[in-house]
Amino acid sequence: MTPREASQASLEFGGPLGVTAILVLLPATMFHLLLVARSGPARLLGPPTYLPGLEELWSPQALLLLFIWLGLQVALYLLPARKVAEGLELKDKSRLRYPINGFQALVLTALLVGLGVSAGLPLGALPEMLLPLAFATTLTSFIFSLLLYVKALAAPVSALAPGGNSGNPIYDFFLGRELNPRLGSFDFKYFCELRPGLIGWVFINLALLIQEAELRGSPSLAMWLVNGFQLLYVGDALWYEESVLTTMDIIHDGFGFMLVFGDLAWVPFIYSLQAQFLLYHPQPLGLPMALLICFIKAIGYYIFRGANSQKNTFRKNPSDPSVAGLQTIPTATGRQLLVSGWWGMVRHPNYLGDLIMALAWSLPCGLSYLLPYFYLLYFTALLVHREARDEQQCLRKYGRAWQEYCKRVPYRIIPYVY
Ligand SMILES: NC(=O)C1=CN([C@@H]2O[C@H](COP(=O)(O)OP(=O)(O)OC[C@H]3O[C@@H](n4cnc5c(N)ncnc54)[C@H](OP(=O)(O)O)[C@@H]3O)[C@@H](O)[C@H]2O)C=CC1
Ligand SMILES: CC(C)=CCC[C@@H](C)[C@H]1CC=C2C3=C(CC[C@@]21C)[C@@]1(C)CC[C@H](O)C(C)(C)[C@@H]1CC3
After folding, report:
1. Which residues of the chain have pLDDT under 50?
2. pLDDT of 210-259, one tens digit each?
3. Whole-model pTM?
4. Atom of ligand 1 nearest to the CA of 344
5. Residue 275 CA to ligand 2 centre (angstroms)
6. Residue with CA at minimum distance from ligand 2 atom 18
7. Where do runs of H (alpha helix) occur along 79-187?
8. DSSP secondary structure of 217-243
9. Hey, is 359 helix, strand or coil?
10. How far is CA 246 from CA 59, 240, 315, in A?
11. What's the 214 CA to ligand 2 centre distance in angstroms?
12. Partner of 149 at 20 to 30 A CA spacing, among 115, 143, 270, 405?
């Protein structure tokens, strides 16, 4: 089977029709949520109380701010790294090299923004710019994905992603034709996955906290919790940056509109929805409830980090003392599957931890509105779909050994439930 035939045989997301609908629905959902979060009733499913005109969406200043931000993150990515990591082996047996300096980029950005604020940079004004910024980011994502699609037309077959090479232009534009598009040693997918959007999310949250303090004298406890929890999540992702090299996005998915828009627009503007909601709808939160929520977050993080680190350590060095005692199933590829420890509890313990953390991010917003729970609902759907995709890939990779694993570990994400 040629790569194109293989790609056509396993079209995902409902094929060309499905991805055309998603292409329109994703940005529409994002703008709907941004508008609803600042409206009085904050109804997740109702219409927004007003529709902005093009003059409210389009702003050259927002576009300039976006390019300054992207330029800063590119510059920080290019700084000398504490380590250069190798990715997994590619089809042509080569391995790409990636700088590990994401945490350094977060700290340096914080220092620069801190300096800027003390010199009078009005960070608290950022929430007012979210709509035009989201519009500029959406336009940029469309144009950037188009450029990536055109660039991939000249890429060799060995550089194409397994999924985004169907021959249908809309489908391939959405999924991404090339697996690891690069300009010299600059890797676009790796850069976008962990830098501008993820770090941008933290600073949007901070701006919302500052504006709340300006409006109400001090930030609320709920706003502190949401900021703290999400900063921990982003800090963790950058501290363990190397582990992103074994995620499905890096090793399997092409770099097309889905990931470009997801990384650059969806993450910063949608993942900050709880903090946006709290700025416009302050919620009382007592200390006992806050402590209970911190406990839930701690359990989620313990499972998430434990599971991800156990798998990464095992994949890097199966005889590492922390994983050497675990039970395994051998596979025909020479790799083994963990069948005890976190990976013996359910087949995706890291998703379980991530979902528990998502719940802890929404709870500070109280139980009267559905809107702050959008992330939890969307994330559940994303992970259930992702789990099914991963299952198919593992079955293809490991055959019988995977079936044996599924027999020994029957639950996918939640023990005894799913
Ligand atoms: N916040 C967000 O928006 C999102 C967060 N995430 C998070 O990203 C993280 C990474 O997720 P993702 O890339 O989907 O997948 P995983 O990190 O779960 O990786 C799946 C891979 O792990 C390996 N694997 C599966 N079972 C075993 C086993 N028993 N023993 C050893 N290896 C095994 C297989 O690859 P192989 O055998 O080839 O190593 C499989 O393909 C998760 O924590 C997830 O929650 C993901 C999506 C969105
Ligand atoms: C609906 C839509 C726009 C889909 C695109 C999905 C993307 C938003 C997500 C796909 C996988 C992601 C990961 C993270 C962020 C969200 C996206 C890009 C991640 C960087 C978050 C931090 C984690 O610690 C992580 C590094 C494990 C994670 C990797 C996957």
Report:
1. none
2. 999 999 999 999 999 999 999 999 999 999 999 899 888 998 899 999 99
3. 0.94
4. 29
5. 19
6. 263
7. 102-118, 130-153, 169-175
8. SS--HHHHHHHHHHHHHHHHHHHTGGG
9. helix
10. 38, 12, 9
11. 32
12. 270
